[in-house]
Amino acid sequence: MEKESATPKSDYGDFVLDAIFAVDTQGICVSVTGACERIFGYTAEEMVGKCMLDMVHPDDLGRTLQSIDRVMTGYLQRYFENRYIRKDGKVAYISWSATWSEDHQLRIGVARDITERKYDDHQLVARELLPEGPSYWQLSASPRRLIAPDGAIIALSHQDHIVLLTLMTGGESVTRRAIVEALGEDFLEYDQRRLDTQMRRLRNKVKEVCSTPLPVSTLRSVGYRFYEATKILR
Question: What keywords does the record list, in alphabetical order (predicted)?
Answer without folding.
Answer: DNA-binding, Kinase, Phosphoprotein, Transferase
